[in-house]
Write a structure and sequence with these properties.
By secondary structure, this protein is α/β, with parallel strands linked by helices. The chain is rod-shaped and about 105 Å long. Strand 3, helix 5 and strand 4 form a beta-alpha-beta unit. The chain has three domains: 84 residues, Arc Repressor Mutant, subunit A (Orthogonal Bundle); 94 residues, Periplasmic binding protein-like II (D-Maltodextrin-Binding Protein, domain 2, 3-Layer(aba) Sandwich), CATH 3.40.190.10; 104 residues, D-Maltodextrin-Binding Protein, domain 2. It starts with a helix and ends in a 7-residue tail after the last helix. The model has no long low-confidence stretch (mean pLDDT 87). The protein has eleven helices and eleven strands. Helix 1 crosses helix 3 and helix 5 crosses helix 11.
């Protein structure tokens, strides 16, 4: 039994006559009649019987019609799914996002991506740079949006800067240092520090203190939660380093103050990181396009 014969048989049933089906199929009536007869011979069953106003399926023909429709529909759906998957419009994509972008910035990317390719299932993991890079290299995620620590280079990875993020040493308006007209690194050393738990942040701070001939004390709190760091700063008991874009309302409202210290403003490129082996995958390309478009609409941070 051939796929073509099933298609011919279904067309005859749905058209009501062999002649009408031949027109739909763009074949001659004799060719279509032969195809149906060959199908009946293959199945050892009479499938059609003549009626005063055309033809109708026998009991065996009715059963074949329903099965044939299922087969034809499933075949068409399979072809569509395979084509959509090849175009990156169906399937799943595993994405990693740095904590500083896990709010509105990433939401904009995901909404844009979902509108462009609604058949793509998105699995999103939030984390910090070191953990996300490990996930990328071990294929747990296929693309990242994250900050780029200084001095990074990896021949297995593609780095595409999209924006520049500025982070500041910050305290609350109620912190004791907020009342000082001039702040020094020695003052900061005496503060309770609450810092993100990342090796490159600790290294950067140690270097800054060293330039002032100071040693850096141990942070009072280390965490992987930026929202917790913000709350700790607002409590008035801690100083921290946080991205400006997460504190815009707090700074504008006077609740948080940026310390004016030499070297206390940190600018980092941020954007996409991909494995070379995944960069051309269609689904990843859709994600890249959504990220580029979304971050270009973010004027406060556009590079």
């Amino acid at each position: 039994m051939e796929f073509k014969q099933l298609r011919h048989f279904v067309a005859v049933i749905e058209s009501g006559t062999v002649s009408a089906a031949a027109v739909v199929l763009c074949i001659t009536q004799p060719a279509l009649t032969r195809s149906i007869k060959n199908l009946e011979a293959r199945l050892h069953a009479k499938l059609l019987e003549r009626q005063p106003r055309g033809i109708a399926p026998t009991e065996a023909g009715t059963r074949l019609y329903h099965r044939a429709k299922m087969i034809l529909n499933e075949t068409e759906n399979t072809a569509s799914d395979v084509t959509a998957t090849a175009k990156g419009e169906l399937g799943s994509l595993n994405i990693g996002v740095a904590a500083m972008f896990a709010g509105d910035p990433m939401a904009k990317v995901l909404v844009r991506l979902a509108k462009a390719v609604p058949g793509l299932t998105l699995n999103v993991t939030e984390g910090f740079y070191e953990d996300l890079i490990m996930d990328l290299k071990t294929a747990h995620v296929e693309a990242l949006i994250t900050n780029f620590p200084p001095g990074i280079a990896d021949e297995e990875l593609v780095f595409e800067p999209l924006i520049t993020v500025r982070s500041q040493f910050v305290i609350s308006a109620g912190h004791p240092l907020a009342r000082k007209s001039r702040t020094t690194w020695a003052d900061v050393r005496g503060c309770n520090l609450a810092l993100v738990r990342q090796a490159h942040v600790s290294s950067l701070l140690a270097d800054l203190f060293a330039t002032e001939n100071l040693t850096m004390g141990r942070p009072a709190i280390e965490t992987n939660s930026l929202s917790l760091l913000r709350s700790l700063v607002l409590s008035g008991n801690y100083a921290s380093i946080l991205p400006e874009h997460l504190l815009e309302e707090d700074i504008a409202g006077g609740r948080i103050k940026c310390l004016e210290l030499k070297g206390a403003t940190f600018e980092r490129s941020s954007g996409l990181i991909l494995r070379y082996s995944e960069a051309r995958r269609p689904a990843v390309q859709h994600f890249i396009e959504a990220a580029r478009a979304s971050f270009s609409d973010w004027p406060a941070l556009a590079a």
